[in-house]
């Protein structure tokens, strides 16, 4: 990224040599992202991150559908545990666009989408009315991998006119998105979940998918997202994706073992602790535990003081006292959810980090319970 942040200042839409060098970097990054996500280069739209990619997918598709189906109802179907970037976009579409309705599909107690209920919702809504089905690849709080191929199959059978979107932000570091999201029309990714820069992401828009832009004013990204490109950000996203693809299998084994050591150690050392989801269906980098009898915000503060950084729910929502909508959808009682903590492990996590957490967390929980 460094040359494009400090030396190559050309505007990628210009025509002089500096501009051409910047444009070449963007297009090289686009080629790389496309290959790694199983898309054609022209299907990749660079964004400012996962939230913008999700908003563009949801509001872009529903905006086009509302215009095309003027005077008729149109339905967007989502899981109940989507990231706020998807859920709030669905709610905004229902509030702003005439005739748009939002249907939620629940999950089981382990945080996996209820496919039978999805089939019922698709059948009830009728093919002609369903414009968008959006289900994440892996949950950002508890880490459960969703049955995306089944979602695609059900949608194609019961609502063949609908577009399928997946928020792959949390899953891209651990899963082969090109394989896991095969058949999906729209795919959102974010660089910072892969070790890349914050503020860079992309949306794959399959050829033929009708999408209204959210940002207008220029012809960039085939008029799907106007604005000067973040050249360094695009390069960083592509590089991070490439490194993840190269190291994914080995890192999944290594980090998964560290996660198991952390989870098992805390379950043994601390009374009244539960795992939110089945570890077999969770990405390796997520360890989500519920500590009964403590307040998660207080626990975050104590652990931070001891040098252990954890999250009380979604990182974007940490600091908010609202209960987790993910745990609520899973049927976790409020008194249990109140003490929920997410430990995130990744490329830089070491055995020493895990041992430090195993030493610090039991003491912090005991202090709060006392």
Walk me through the structure.
The chain is α/β, with parallel strands linked by helices and 370 residues long. The chain has 2 domains: 242 residues, Type I PLP-dependent aspartate aminotransferase-like (Major domain) (Aspartate Aminotransferase, domain 2), CATH 3.40.640.10; 122 residues, Aspartate Aminotransferase, domain 1, CATH 3.90.1150.10. It is built from 13 helices and 10 strands. Strands 1-7-6-5-4-2-3 form a 7-stranded mixed beta sheet, with helices on both faces. The protein has a 3-stranded antiparallel beta sheet with strand order 8-9-10. α4 links the parallel β2 and β3. The longest helix has 39 residues. The protein starts with a helix and ends with a helix.
Reconstruct the topology from this structure.
Elements: H1 2-6, H2 17-37, E1 44-47, H3 50-68, E2 74-79, H4 84-96, E3 100-105, H5 115-125, E4 130-134, H6 148-158, E5 163-167, H7 177-180, E6 186-190, E7 201-205, H8 220-223, H9 231-269, E8 273-275, E9 286-291, H10 296-305, H11 325-329, H12 334-337, E10 340-344, H13 351-369
Parallel strand pairs: 2-3, 2-4, 4-5, 5-6
Antiparallel strand pairs: 1-7, 6-7, 8-9, 9-10
Helix pairs in contact: 2-9, 3-4, 5-6, 9-13, 10-13
* Mean pLDDT across residues: 94
- Specify Rg, calculated over alpha carbons: 21 Å
Low-confidence stretches: none
**Could you tell me the number of beta strands?**
10
Shape: globular
Structural class: alpha/beta
Name the CATH superfamily classification of the largest domain: Type I PLP-dependent aspartate aminotransferase-like (Major domain)
* CATH architecture classification of the largest domain: 3-Layer(aba) Sandwich
- For this structure, the CATH topology of the largest domain is Aspartate Aminotransferase, domain 2
Q: How would you sum up the major sheet?
A: 7 strands, mixed
Strand content: 5-15%
In sequence order, what are the helices and strands, one letter per element?
HHEHEHEHEHEHEEHHEEHHHEH
């Amino acid at each position: 990224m460094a040359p494009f942040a400090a030396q190559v200042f050309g505007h990628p839409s210009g025509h002089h040599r500096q501009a051409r060098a910047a444009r070449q970097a963007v297009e090289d990054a686009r080629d790389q992202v496309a290959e790694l996500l199983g898309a054609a280069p022209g299907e990749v739209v660079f964004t400012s991150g996962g939230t913008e990619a999700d908003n563009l997918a949801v509001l872009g598709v529903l905006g086009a559908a509302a215009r095309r189906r003027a005077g008729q109802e149109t339905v967007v179907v989502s899981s109940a545990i989507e990231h706020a970037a998807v859920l709030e976009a669905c709610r905004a579409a229902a509030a702003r666009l005439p005739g748009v309705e939002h249907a939620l599909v629940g999950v089981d107690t382990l945080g996996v989408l209820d496919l039978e209920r999805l089939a019922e919702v698709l059948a009830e809504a009728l093919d002609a009315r369903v414009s968008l089905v959006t289900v994440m690849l892996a949950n950002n709080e508890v880490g459960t991998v969703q049955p995306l191929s089944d979602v695609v199959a059900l949608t194609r059978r019961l609502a063949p006119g609908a577009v399928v979107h997946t928020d792959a932000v949390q899953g891209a570091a651990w899963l082969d998105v090109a394989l896991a999201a095969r058949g999906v029309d729209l795919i959102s990714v974010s660089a910072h979940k892969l070790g890349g820069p914050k503020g860079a992401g992309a949306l794959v828009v399959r050829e033929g998918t009708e999408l209204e832009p959210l940002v207008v004013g220029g012809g960039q990204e085939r008029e799907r997202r106007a604005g000067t490109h973040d050249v360094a950000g695009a390069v960083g996203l592509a590089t991070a994706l490439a490194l993840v693809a190269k190291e994914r299998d080995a890192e999944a084994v290594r980090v998964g073992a560290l996660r198991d050591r952390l989870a098992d150690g805390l379950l043994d050392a601390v009374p009244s602790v539960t795992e939110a989801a089945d570890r077999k269906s969770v990405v390796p980098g997520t360890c989500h535990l519920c500590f009964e009898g403590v307040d998660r915000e207080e626990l975050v503060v104590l652990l931070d003081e001891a040098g252990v950084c954890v999250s009380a729910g979604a990182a974007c929502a940490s600091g908010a006292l609202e209960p987790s909508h993910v745990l609520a959808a899973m049927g976790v009682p409020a008194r249990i959810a109140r003490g929920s903590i997410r430990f995130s492990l990744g490329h830089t996590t070491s055995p020493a980090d895990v041992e430090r957490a195993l030493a610090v967390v039991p003491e912090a929980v005991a202090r709060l319970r006392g």
